[in-house]
Amino acid sequence: MSLRIAATFARRELRGGLRGFRIFLACLALGVAAIATVGSVRSSIEAGLAREGAALLGGDAELDFTYRFATEEERAWMEDTALAVSEITDFRSMAVVGEGDTSERALTQIKSVDDAYPLVGNVVLEPEMPLAQALGDQNGLPGAVMERVLVDRLGLGIGDTFRLGTQAFHLSAILAREPDSAAGGFALGPRTIVRTPDLANSSLLTSGSIFESEYRLLLPENTDLDALEIEARERFEGTGARWRDSRNGAPGVSRFVERLGAFLVLVGLSGLAVGGVGVSSAVRSYMSGKTNVIATLRTLGAERSTIFQTYFLQIGILSLLGVTLGILLGAMIPVLFGPLIESRLPIPAAFAIYPAPLIEAAIYGLLTAFLFTLWPLARAGDIRAATLFRDALTSGGRLPAPRYLFMTVAALALLLAVAGWFSGSWWLTLWTAGGITGALLLLSGAAYLIRILSRRGGRLARGFPRLRWALAAIADPREGASSVVLSLGLGLSVLAAVGQIDGNLRIAISGNLPDIAPSYFFVDIQKDQIDGYTDRLTRDLAVTGIQSAPMLRGIVTQINGQPAREVAGDHWVVRGDRGVTYAAAQPEDTRLTQGEWWAEDYTGPPLISFAAEEGEEMGLSLGDTITLNILGRDITGTIASFREVDFSTAGIGFILTMNPAALSGAPHSFISTVYAAPEAEARILRDLSTTYPNITAIRVRDAIDRVADVLSGLAAATSYGAGATLLTGLLVLFGAASAGTTARSYEAAVLKTLGVTRRSIFISFALRSALLGLLAGSVALAAGIAGGWAVITFIMETDFTVIWPYALAIIGGGILATLLASLVFAWGPVNSTPARVLRARE
């Protein structure tokens, strides 16, 4: 009976329209829309990757080998299984134009193909022509195609000649698009495509060279990929082969999209938290305006539960409306802007309406609305009728009844559980929740402290009436300082944290490294070249340091006789092939943390020195055995020591180092880092590449710039999420300013009656807004710096530095935002007629 009566009351209350709930609906809709949009875009990309899996991979399935081609038996199995097989090699080298001192060199990622490539999709060239024609011979030279950025860098034109290793090629066309580009992962140089047979005389694909061979398979329709994968893994076990198929054509891209999407959803939750502050303020303001209605109902015998149910149903209906609006926006934005978004993506996306992310966003929105409206509604239901007649909600207790406290805790726990489940990262969810909670507590405490300091500061501001009026207004709980500090502060906190993280990552990658990093990495140095290479550099006075080491690539297949992934999980060391080296003596700059180095003349069973940090993460200890597959042969070694490996110096760092007898007989090349004066770098590169055309040089600055470009994209995507959070905070800010219009009109009328000029009143309003913005921005900056420091220190594990220009921009933004919101709604009160306002008040 009570619920039926409450429903009747709620329906009649809603007849009054949405007045007072515009900010409520806007905050809720915007937060839900942000999460729904991110989820919809992520689902669109995942659907595109699934739909185009074969095209992305370049076939229905793929087998990869490191440092070698498939054997005749391996190739025979592939040809018996598939309708067609395409062999591809992928490696880095230098593209050279010209001779002598006038030559130009640039790093390129080479893909050499056979006549069957591509099995799926099409290579797009400019000018348009078949790939086979572009790679054919002209004037006795084989053809090649390059990406435009590399063509421009080398100053080439169609028909010009360049060299790869010792082989000359003519440029036939510009490579506009390759169908399987997303499957290649991160590349340090632009792409060049040639035919594999044309590299026979290039000295690039020799024994020990660093390359990967990839065999794409075009399978019969209705092939059971699960069964075929099991058969392939059993047949190729111990050979170092890796299997992929069209169900996950670009695993690196899929993993990246999934994790970035999860992170952005959690950033969106920060926006919902900001919106929750606005929702709570709107409900509190609305309930304050319903004092007479509630008092009348209580006088007529309405129970507390009826009062609570009445407004709970009303707010619930409005919450459903706000969530629905947010879902509609989140569903339509990706569809409407799909062509624009897809044009900026390097991967396919199938933009449509996907129910799963919309349901996820709806759950987030409803739980947030419930969490932030429960207390204002509970306090209204628990206040006695006589108190309501005297003073709205401010006379009620600070805390609602225990049952509502329990419901609040339960709703918060459910929200965290849902966020952890949907994002797939409990760790990241708890970090985000802890950061938001900490920021809210800090901002709440700051708002309370601001009111106290303003009350005391008012006494010290005698002689400065405008400042005194401003401080007195801030000290008044009805002025809404708490809402301003919470909403704007949380939005600015998220933006400040993102800015500090982005700035510190840029410093770590491109700011600090040049002082300690080498000038070049040189790879593919053959055994018979290393002595001459070293002699050339040691005689150069501009060279300040050389570090060289033998290098092989191996896959960790077993740990203590068990599959590596069963022991180490999804640790990055066991996800792909890793660099492996050998050394007789312990290097001078190597510090052991456990165990001992082997004797220089040791020839016994293979021993391993493993990176200490990664070993601890994988749960390894001295005496454990690790099986590596190197060039198709399994080598099992025992961990004899753990050592520190510092990758931050950009020097040579290997996870695994073994004794020489274990590896020296296998075909391999050397890797080297060179430290030289900047003015000598071009000369060194020219001399070495002329003498040893097969050697590939990777300029460290170029590699840093490529990583910085990736980070720029991440920072931009995260900033969009933080921007939505800030926009929600601005909505709350404007709502608070709008709600205070009546109080400011009365204040202005009283001051005018006492002889104060409009100019002084306006300056007073501006001062209070600027002070609130300054304080909110300062607190937000402190919270953002703390959050950025935590992420950089504990997650990124690098040094943290405050980015002051960005920090000052946050404070300036806080002042500007509050000034804008306040002054927009201050113009009316300043220009109001005192008699009319005071008469209405009476």
Furnish the topology, listing elements before pairings.
Blueprint: H1 2-14, H2 22-51, H3 53-57, E1 61-66, H4 72-81, E2 84-97, E3 104-113, E4 124-126, H5 131-134, E5 143-147, H6 148-154, E6 161-164, E7 167-177, E8 191-195, E9 212-218, H7 225-235, E10 242-245, H8 251-289, H9 291-299, H10 304-336, H11 338-343, H12 355-382, H13 385-390, H14 402-423, H15 426-460, H16 465-475, H17 481-511, E11 520-525, H18 530-538, E12 543-559, E13 562-563, H19 564-568, E14 577-582, E15 592-595, E16 607-611, H20 612-618, E17 625-630, E18 633-643, E19 656-658, H21 660-663, E20 669-676, H22 681-691, E21 696-699, H23 700-739, H24 741-753, H25 758-795, H26 804-831, H27 834-841
Parallel strand pairs: 3-8, 5-7, 14-19, 16-18
Antiparallel strand pairs: 1-9, 1-10, 2-3, 2-6, 2-9, 4-7, 5-8, 6-7, 11-20, 11-21, 12-13, 12-14, 12-17, 12-20, 15-18, 16-19, 17-18
Polypeptide structure, described:
The structure is a single chain. With 842 residues, the chain is α+β, with helices and mostly antiparallel strands. It folds into four domains: 228 residues, no CATH class; 162 residues, no CATH class; 218 residues, no CATH class; 134 residues, no CATH class. It contains 27 helices and 21 strands. About 1% of the residues have low confidence.
What do the pLDDT scores average to? 80
Largest β sheet strand count, sense and barrel closure: 6 strands, mixed, barrel
Q: Which class best fits the helix and strand makeup?
A: alpha+beta
The number of distinct helices, counting runs of at least 4 residues, comes to 27
Strand content: 15-25%
Residue windows where pLDDT falls under 50 for at least 5 positions:
391-397
Q: What does the overall shape look like?
A: elongated
Domain module count = 4
Helix share bin: 40-55%
Distance N terminus to C terminus? 40 Å
Q: How many β-strand stretches? A: 21
Q: What spatial order of strands do you see in the largest sheet?
A: 2-3-8-5-7-6
Radius of gyration over all CA atoms, rounded: 34 Å
Organism: Roseobacter fucihabitans
Subcellular location: Cell membrane
Keywords: Cell membrane, Membrane, Transmembrane, Transmembrane helix
Pfam families: FtsX (PF02687)
